[in-house]
Amino acid sequence: MRIVIYSGTFKKNQDGASKSLYQLTESLLKENVEVGIWSPSITPQNRKGLYLYNLPSIPFPFYSDYRLAIIVRKIKKQINEFKPSLIQITLPDMVGAYILKFAKKKGIPVVISYHTDFPSYLEYYHLNFFLKPGWRYLVWYCKNADFVYVPTQEVSGILKSKGVGNVRIWSRGVDRKLFNPKYRSNELREKWNAGDRKVILYAGRFVWYKALDVFLKVYQLFKRKNPENVSFILAGDGPIKEYLKEKMPDGHFPGYLDQEDLSRVYASADLLLFPSNTETFGNVVLEALSSGVPAVVSDKGGCKEIIARSQGGLVAKAGDPHSFYENCMKLLKDDDLYKRMQRNGLLFAEEQRWDKINGKLIKEFKDLGKQKHLLTA
User: Fold this and answer.
1) If we measure between CA atoms, which residue out of 32, 114, 5, 352 comes closest to residue 22?
2) Distance, CA of 272 to CA of 313 (rounded, Å)
3) End-to-end Cα, the chain, rounded Å
4) pLDDT digits (tens, 9 = 90+) for 225-270
5) What domain range includes position 189?
6) Residue 42 — φ and ψ, nearest 5°?
């Protein structure tokens, strides 16, 4: 079997989508499936069965860490020569639509994996006048695929309410060897001057649509009410990093971390505070639970579904700093509650191993490829 994947990024650990695609690619290669990646941003690598096609691109207008692929005719030629059994598209941009139309014309099975809640970004940036045409395009895009794979039941429900019926669940997994409580480091906590303080962690991109304005206000509430009891760690990078550092002078900003260093940061924290309300899933929440760290998340977006399924944390009202603060305090003050949620999170993470999650998806890919082959034979 040969699979084409078109993605906005295939840079290792850049975000949750790229992590998921790296893990899927790893699972496919283990199953002796050959994989071709078409993307404007690719981490160079040389692996048997993996073929990389770097697309021409321009910087993304609002976020220079990402690039926008440009349509060029050679994409069709390259895909034709690759002879895919199935095409997976992960981004509803113009190149994604171009490949989708090509797949339909050629009779190649095509699936869409839904990683990013673009409509919620439009709302967050007060671009509501784009919502109706944006949804019309997104519905057309989804309906033209054989299947649309979403990470949570919530996203499935939203798409179905818009008339998209071909929806299936592809949840997200976690590497239990990498994200594990055994990596807790007293040395790292000393470096943070944590001492007996509770360490509250944020992990992810430093962009406003992750509701970091709420995070900042929760920080200010802690500084006003419990200044000696907590330390704040923000792991990641992004365009508002310097602003956050200015507003959080005693916060620790270890920067962009490789997986090994990130696993130590997770396990050495006591609580993940993740107020984003634009997540389709929230990989960082699952990584925290797998590291023995309960989470406080928003009641809007995919993260709350992880908490509902795992019982590994608490859910706060979206956009309400006081609600997040109170839920953080509830967890940090009640040792029995904290330990129960810590255990729950670890048990849930054990069931979310990538090999199990991706094994089911790959079987569905193979079944779809066989069905299409029989129909066209």
Assistant:
1) 5
2) 9
3) 17
4) 987 789 999 999 989 999 999 999 999 999 988 888 999 999 999 9
5) 181-351
6) -135, 130
The answer, yes or no, to whether residue 213 has pLDDT greater than 90, is: yes
338 and 364 co-located in one domain? no
- Do residues 209 and 326 share a domain? yes
Cβ-contact 45, 75 below 8 angstroms: no
- pLDDT over 50 at 306, yes or no: yes
pLDDT in tens, 26-61: 999 999 999 999 999 998 899 999 999 999 988 876
Residues 161 and 191 reside in one and the same domain:
no
Q: What is the Cα 226 distance to its own chain's centre?
A: 32
Instruction: Give per-residue pLDDT as tens, 62-106.
Output: 666 778 889 998 999 999 999 999 999 999 899 999 999 999 999
Tokens of 87: 């095409």
Domain shared by 8 and 50, yes or no: yes
Query: Which secondary-structure segment (H or E) carries 119?
Result: helix 118-124
Counting other chains too, the contacts that 257-260 makes at CB distance below 8 Å and 24 or more residues apart are 258/13, 259/13, 259/175, 259/178, 260/178
Whether residues 185 and 130 fall in one domain: no
- 105 and 243 housed in the same domain: no
- What type of residue sits at position 241? K
CA-CA-CA-CA dihedral for 299, 302, 304, 310, to nearest 10: 180
Domain count across the chain = 2
Q: Are residues 72 and 169 in the same domain?
A: yes
For residue 103, the domain's CATH number is 3.40.50.2000
By residue count, the chain amounts to 377
Same domain, 152 and 297: no
